Amino acid sequence: MTEPQLLEVLKKANDHYNVIYVGIGKLKFGTRHDVLKITALGSCVGLAIYPERFKGEPIGALAHIMLPSSRTRTTENNIGKAKYADTAIEHILKKYYELGYKPNELQAKATGGGNMYPKRLPQRQLDIGNQNIQEIKRLLKQHQIPLKNAVFGGTESRSMTYIIEKKLIIVTDTGRKNPQIL
Prior knowledge:
Oligomer: single chain
Number of domains: 1
């Protein structure tokens, strides 16, 4: 699709579906009539996990992951189930397993993990975005869920729109520029 066509798809999605915004550290599930949306992904990662084939009603999950691991937390700050990559993936998989899905029936797509302050954080080991990316890849591999496509890194904020019924995920840079299909 061309850029104008993708922008038109985004506009129609906002007009024809129930738009559910996924805040930082949160995860949401949606069905046929829903669009899950994350805005302003910097070092955070937007992770969509969904069935390759629906068993009945279409369903999809989107998490707005803030940090790589709950093992590194120093305080009990309950922002949400998806604050950490490990707990976000755990909660999503639990729901899919309750619905009768197996890991080999699921797949993932993701975006984000940018280095928003490259001049202040030039070393990759201090880059939370990179740590998020590596931990999400590790966890998906551990659970045998393929990462079908991803747009990671960079220094600009991104938005992610997931049209569940169509299994269509569109990523845009800040200001709805450079739309692309994941």
